[in-house]
């Protein structure tokens, strides 16, 4: 017999079970991203697969950037707008 917790919604649908992939917090930080700049941020054990996520927010509206996952790091590239501070959170499920 298996032990654990399962959580069900009011309609009987399973919301959380032993087979659910639940994200875990890994790392958080802030860095400056300049116009046409690139910043590499180290994250121990990171891989470019669907178990890793990076959530990033620019401090200044009108700043555009993209985030690319790599082995043991993610790269943030400025895509337009103004210099900005980027705050990020890394999770793994």
Q: What's the short story on this structure?
A:
The protein is mainly β and 93 residues long. The chain has no helices and eight strands.
Domain count: 1
Proportion of strand residues = over 45%
Gross morphology: elongated
Q: What is the radius of gyration?
A: 18 Å
Q: Stretches where pLDDT falls below 50 for ≥5 residues? A: none
Report how far apart the termini are: 25 Å
| Widest beta sheet: strand line-up | 3-8-5
Total helical segments: 0
Average the pLDDT over all residues and give the rounded result.
92
Helix/strand/pairing category: mainly beta
Q: How much helix is in the residues?
A: under 10%
Q: Summarize the main sheet.
A: 3 strands, antiparallel
Strand and helix order? EEEEEEEE
How many beta strands in the DSSP annotation?
Answer: 8
Write up what this structure looks like:
The protein is mainly beta. The protein has one domain. The protein contains no helices and 8 strands. It has a 3-stranded antiparallel beta sheet with strand order 3-8-5, with no helix packed on it. Strands 4-7-6 form a 3-stranded antiparallel beta sheet, with no helix packed on it. β6 and β7 form a beta hairpin. The protein is elongated.
